[in-house]
Backbone:
């Protein structure tokens, strides 16, 4: 999973997920409202005040607290927060209604897809660490003993397989020693869980990654720490994701060009208007050379991660 899953500013989304599953509502809210370095001073001040208002009694803006000054300041915070800061704005709005003593309505009011992203980000964090251990410790070509594969190997291989809310995941099993020794199962058949109530863990050292990280973070996928449905582990059914995914429709082309800011490819708008880009595709004139990649990925796969593997470099600059 790439940076899109974990965020590129403020607290990481998986850290928020941990606090939500543990029922640490104030800490979860604080992480959500933490800002980015590149925001203007007004937005930074609004976030700082909202953070303090979550726990400092004299800043409680709830009507019942009787603090008109704190209430007025929170309304200013709402005016200063960007419209796109959906979660932060919901928290500020519900603080006005319910105050510091009941932060659950604030968290429940966050749009559903955003709430689920926090939980999924923690599952993805575990998956990433498990995938790294698997590729570092064992064969990168074949399944090894204890790896997970689907029981039905004839089914169409997907990058991701979810459990339906009212159903089960497809059956999985562990690779046997005999299968591993004979190298009869390719690495493309190996799956790893995004852990939940209906998933199982591998039976090799990759299992330790899940167990150690969840123990460190205080997460138990078998027992919920609270009864708030939206963030209750009983609702986290889990999923399986292929360890590797082979891109399809791969095409490679080289483009020669002269200037650093020269347009190399046609935009979608230019295609619609039947306009040409700055240079033709393929061989051209110029002292510089660019590589053009075309490929198709399944859902839940990230092009930025594919480029990282090709370049063997960091993805940090890809967010700019």
Residues:
């Amino acid at each position: 999973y790439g940076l899109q899953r974990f965020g590129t500013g403020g607290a990481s989304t998986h850290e928020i997920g941990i606090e939500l599953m543990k029922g640490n509502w104030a800490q979860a809210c604080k992480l959500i409202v933490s800002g980015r370095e590149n925001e203007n001073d007004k937005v930074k001040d609004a976030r700082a005040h909202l953070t303090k208002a979550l726990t400092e009694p004299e800043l409680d803006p709830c009507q019942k607290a009787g603090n008109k000054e704190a209430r007025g300041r929170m309304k200013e915070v709402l005016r200063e927060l960007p419209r796109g800061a959906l979660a932060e704005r919901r928290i500020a709005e519900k603080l006005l209604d319910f105050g510091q003593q009941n932060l659950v309505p604030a968290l429940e009011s966050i749009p559903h897809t955003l709430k689920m992203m926090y939980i999924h980000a923690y599952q993805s964090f575990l998956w990433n660490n498990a995938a790294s251990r698997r590729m570092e410790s064992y064969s990168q070509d074949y399944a090894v003993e204890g790896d997970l594969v689907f029981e039905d190997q004839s089914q169409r291989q997907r990058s991701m397989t979810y459990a339906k809310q009212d159903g089960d995941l497809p059956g999985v099993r562990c690779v046997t020693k005999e299968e591993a020794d004979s190298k009869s199962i390719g690495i493309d058949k190996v799956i790893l869980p995004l852990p939940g109530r209906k998933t199982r863990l591998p039976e090799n050292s990759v299992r330790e990654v899940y167990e150690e990280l969840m123990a460190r973070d205080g997460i138990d996928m078998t027992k919920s720490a609270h009864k708030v449905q939206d963030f209750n582990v009983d609702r986290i059914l889990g999923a399986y994701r292929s360890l590797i995914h082979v891109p399809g429709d791969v095409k490679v082309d080289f483009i020669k060009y002269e200037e650093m800011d020269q347009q190399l490819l046609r935009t979608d708008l230019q295609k619609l208007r039947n306009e040409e880009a700055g240079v033709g595709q393929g061989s051209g004139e110029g002292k510089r050379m660019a590589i053009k990649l075309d490929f198709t990925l399944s859902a839940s796969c990230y092009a930025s991660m594919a480029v990282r593997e090709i370049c063997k470099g960091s993805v940090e600059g890809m967010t700019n």
Remarks:
- The chain has twelve helices and seven strands.
